[in-house]
Amino acid sequence: MGFTVDDIAKSIGVVAVGNTSLVVDSVAEPGLATDTHIALAMDPKYAAELTKGAARVAMLWHEADWAGLGLEAALLPTRPRFALSGLSAMMDRGQGYPSGIHPSAIIDDMAVLGENVSVGAFSIIAGGVFIGDNTIVGPQVYIGTNSKIGDGSLIREGTKIGADVVTGRGFIAQQNVSVGGDGFSFVTPELSAVEQARGSLGSDVVANGQPWARIHSLAGVVIGDDVELGSGTCVDRGTVKPTRIGNGVKADSLVQIGHNVTIGDHCLLCAQAGVAGSTVIGNFVVLGGQSGVADNVTIGDGVIAGGGTKILSNVPAGRAILGYPAVKMDTQVEIYKSLRRLPRLMRDFDALKKSVFNAGKSK
Length: 363
Fold this sequence. Notes:
The chain is of the alpha/beta class and 363 residues long. The protein folds into 4 domains: 3-91, 3-Layer(aba) Sandwich (Udp-n-acetylmuramoylalanyl-d-glutamate--2,6- Diaminopimelate Ligase, Chain: A, domain 1), CATH 3.40.1390.10; 106-180 and 219-320, UDP N-Acetylglucosamine Acyltransferase, domain 1, CATH 2.160.10.10; 183-216, no CATH class; 328-362. It is 17% helix and 26% strand. The strands form 7 sheets. Strands 10-13-16-19-24-27-30-33-36-38-39 form an 11-stranded mixed beta sheet, with helices on one face. A hairpin with a 4-residue loop joins strand 38 and strand 39. The longest helix has 34 residues, at 329-362. 34% of the residues are buried.
C-alpha cells in the first residue's frame, strides 16, 4: 500500500510542496523514518530529529522551511494534529481480520447479516440480531438477542454486547467493551443508612443493616452514529428506559456509564471517568480522566471538567470546572494556591502567638 504525496494532500486537504509524486507507505518519528515514510515533525522542536532519519517527506507546520530541512517534499497543514487525523486514517492497515465468516463462529438462524460482514473466530451472534453492511465482528465477540449494529462498525475482540442494544453507523468498540450489562441498582425495604446520610449529610444516621433487593434492568442501550468506546469501557442498560449515547461520542478506556444515563452529541469521556445512573449530560461536554459524576445530575452543553473532578450537583452550560467537589476552574486554582500557603501561614501564626504571649509575660 502506498500513496503519492499529492494524493495524500488532496485527500486530507493540506498544502503539498516539492516533489509531490513521491510515494510513501507509512508514518514514523523523524529520527526513525526511512525513505518510504512520512516523518511527523509537526512542531519546530522535532525538526532537528529529521537529520537522524532518512525521510524524504515530512508533515511539518504551516510556515516550515521544508527545503532548508533537507526534504524533497512536505505537507504543510495549518492545523497539524487535525491533519494527522486524516493521514492516520489513510495509513491504518487495520487489525488484519480475515474476511467472511470463521468456521468456529456461531450465528443463530434468526440473525441477519448485511453485505460484506466478517465474523471472527469463536464469536457468537444470537437470534434477532441485525448486523449492518461492511461491519467487522472480531474474534471472541458476543452479540445478544435483538441487538442491532449499524453499517460500517468495528467490534473488536472480546467485546460483549447484551440484548436490546442498538448502535448507529460507524460504531467502534475496542477490546473487551461491555455494552448492555444490568445497571447497579439496589434498594432496601426501609430507608437505608445510605439514604439517611445523603439526606442529612451524615448527621443523625441510624444504622439499620438491611439486605439489598435488586432492581432489574428491563430496557436496553441506544447508541448514535460515529461513537467509539475504549477498551474495558462498560455501558449499563436502562431500568425502564434505554441508556442513551448521542452521535459522535468518544469514550476512552475504562469508562463507566451507568443505567438510564443520557449523553448528548460529541462528548468526550477520558480514561476512568464514571457517570452514575440517571445523569443527563448535554452536547460537547468533556469529562477529564478519573472524573466522576453523581447520580441524577444534569450537566449543561459545553461543560469541561478537568481531570479528577467530582461533580455532585448540576452544572450550567459552558462552565469549566475542577476539583472535589467541583467548582469553577479558576476558583479551584485559587483554593489550591491558598492550601499551598497554609503551612507558611500557620508557622507565621504560631510565631505571632508566641510573640504576643512573650510580650504579655514581660509586663
